[in-house]
């Protein structure tokens, strides 16, 4: 693959690689492309060698400038990961026999626990959104999306990627997750009914290959609209800012673990590549158990 002479040309090739060859999610593509653009334009790169020659000290300087702009440790760590991938790709395009990225450790990040919502709150949020939407079909749509996330543990992008041909839903659904990895998730009756209600009320034609969930103008529903509806319901119910759409997926995992699900099964249901990603929910469940103990046990807060 040859560079065409401008940073924009390099970025276009990088985007195509992420989308077509690596099959990264749209969210990942946006983040990785944005990070690559900042580096490519800062160095006025006109060929892959201009990126391939970036070393650890160059990256350190670049990230220091980003930190001076006010980005947090988590954002800096994500940017470093994206830039390492970009540099490794550039070295491969330049014919480097060992295209490994520069070795540079990212900032330390304190790993926080996911904050689940209660089962009642999850249903209350979905019902409130349904009852306060500007149009009935919009309320039915948002309720169906949120119940998919809570009832089946879907990521928001996975829920919005469901095709019209998947409706009517059965007891299970084949989901395309991160990196094109497929998994089968259960569909609760309440979720199946909610999706059917939305499909019947949607004013737009639902061709089999089109996205099932539509925006107000008929295009594919964007994650931002779901997040906006969730924020409105969260405020109305007096829930904390941590009650986001993604928190419903955390709640799915935490409640299943609390009911006795084993970690391996939970890993498959969530589509985690490694068990380590799933093990964080053992800490969440332990934290919930300890809080319940402190509230219920007569001597929990006594010496």
Beta-strand fraction estimate: under 5%
Which stretches are low in confidence, meaning pLDDT under 50 for 5 or more residues running? Answer: none
How is the quaternary structure best described?
single chain
How many β-strands, per DSSP? 2
How would you describe what is shown here?
- The structure is a single chain.
- The protein is mainly alpha-helical and 303 residues long.
- Among the domains are: 7-93, DNA polymerase, domain 1 (Orthogonal Bundle), CATH 1.10.150; 119-242, hpI Integrase, Chain A (Orthogonal Bundle), CATH 1.10.443.10.
- The protein has 13 helices and two strands.
- It has a two-stranded antiparallel sheet with strand order 1-2.
- The chain is elongated.
- It starts with 6 loop residues before the first helix and ends in a 7-residue tail after the last helix.
Task: Describe the protein's topology.
Blueprint: H1 7-21, H2 26-42, H3 48-52, H4 56-68, H5 73-93, H6 119-132, H7 136-152, H8 156-160, E1 172-176, E2 182-186, H9 189-201, H10 223-237, H11 245-258, H12 263-270, H13 275-296
Antiparallel strand pairs: 1-2
Helix pairs in contact: 1-2, 2-5, 4-5, 6-7, 6-10, 7-9, 7-11, 11-13, 12-13
């Amino acid at each position: 693959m040859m560079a065409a002479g401008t940073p924009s040309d390099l970025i276009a090739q990088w985007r195509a690689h992420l989308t077509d060859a690596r099959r990264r999610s749209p969210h990942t593509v946006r983040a990785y492309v944005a990070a690559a653009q900042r580096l490519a334009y800062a160095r006025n790169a006109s060929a892959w060698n201009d990126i391939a020659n970036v070393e650890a000290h160059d990256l350190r300087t670049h990230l220091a400038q980003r930190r001076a702009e006010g980005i947090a440790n988590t954002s800096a760590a994500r940017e470093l990961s994206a830039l390492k991938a970009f540099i490794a790709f550039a070295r491969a395009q330049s014919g480097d026999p060992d295209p490994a990225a520069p070795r540079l450790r990212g900032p330390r990040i304190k790993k926080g626990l996911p904050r689940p919502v209660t089962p009642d709150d999850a249903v209350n949020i979905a019902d409130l959104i349904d009852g306060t939407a500007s149009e009935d079909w919009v309320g039915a749509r948002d309720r169906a999306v949120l119940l998919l996330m809570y009832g089946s543990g879907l990521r928001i992008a996975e829920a919005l990627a469901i095709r019209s041909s998947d409706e009517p839903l059965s007891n299970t659904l084949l989901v395309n997750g991160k990196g094109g990895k497929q998994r089968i998730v259960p569909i609760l009756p309440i979720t199946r009914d909610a999706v059917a209600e939305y499909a019947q009320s949607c004013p737009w034609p639902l061709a089999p290959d089109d996205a099932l969930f539509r925006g107000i103008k008929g295009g594919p529903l964007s994650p931002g609209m779901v997040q906006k509806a969730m924020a409105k319901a969260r405020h109305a119910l007096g829930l904390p800012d941590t009650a986001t759409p993604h928190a419903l997926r955390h709640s799915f995992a935490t409640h299943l673990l609390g009911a006795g699900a084993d970690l391996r099964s939970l890993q498959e249901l969530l589509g985690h590549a490694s068990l380590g990603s799933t093990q964080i929910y053992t800490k969440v469940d332990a934290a919930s158990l300890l809080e319940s103990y402190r509230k219920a046990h007569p001597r929990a807060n006594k010496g």
